[in-house]
Amino acid sequence: MRYLFFTNTPAHVHLYKHTIDRLEDAGHEVLVLGRDYGCTEALLEYYDLPYRIYGACDTTKSSLFRELPGQYYTIAKLARGYDPDWIFGIGSYAAHAGALTRTPVTVVLDTEPTSLDHLLSRPFTSTFLTPAAFRKDLGANHVRFRGFKESAYLHPDTFEVDPSVRSSLGVSPDEPYAIVRFNAWGSHHDIGEGGFTRNQRRQLLSRLTEDVTVFVSDEGGTADLDDLDVEPFSLHPARIHDALAEADLLVADTQTMVTEAALLATPAIRSNSFVGDSDMGNFLELEANDLLYNCETFEDVLSQVSDLLERDSLQETWESRRNEYVEDMVDLTELLTDLARSKAGYEPTDTPADLTETEVLA
Q: Is 249 within a domain?
């Protein structure tokens, strides 16, 4: 069979990379359509995935809408030329490519605020796969699984940390360090939303350097690090999960990396305008299981930083919590690979409130 995958962001490369490898190993043909956004192409190259770039997008909101017509033109041309049997992706690019080629489409979603994307994708999507914690109903083709999209690459059966990352970072085996991740806030679902201000960023970094070595991962590339005793995260982006697994703490105003930290048993603090009672289901789920702190105010962030850095046996506590949480978590790569090999697909399940052990894909 011929499979087409969309990787619009770096996180999408991680989501699908192992499934692509397994399908290729089984003798299937695979093509990845990637967007030149952040380090997406660098990851596609690093993992030696068969890809074509369909367009570019920088980290500003205007860039996405400005580039959209050209991207759709290229997608249509490449998708028709490839003539896939099945398409996998996240959102409307994959769905509309399926409509153009009359191909079944599986979309993995985990972000409830992207309502416009859901609306545009729904008529052309054969199967929506979402975490069980997803707080919206996407209709009869909505399938829930026990885990997160990050379960495709950070499931204990899939990921093994490379401790040599400490040497690559220049930190000693026992040296505590924190990673700070700043969001660019350039996606379409980020309109009207925000995270740390410039002054809060500097204040946060100054506080952390009192106790730990600090590495900054800045999506937008605009963080003011002058006069601060911090280091930019300068390793290849494919090493970020090794670095995150070895870190003592993550503080972020972004989304994906805090879920990754939770699955790697690294304490994480998240703060942005999404935090609150109407927050996304995966973050509420992780907080309910004591693997993540969602802070509505900057004062709460600083207080939580101090509390975590002063705790004894922090690593052991988080590893115990993580191990208990992931015990029944789906290996999403396995699920995606099985789905790709099955022409019938999976039957949809009920809403989160009605889920039972037998109704969740595992």
A: yes
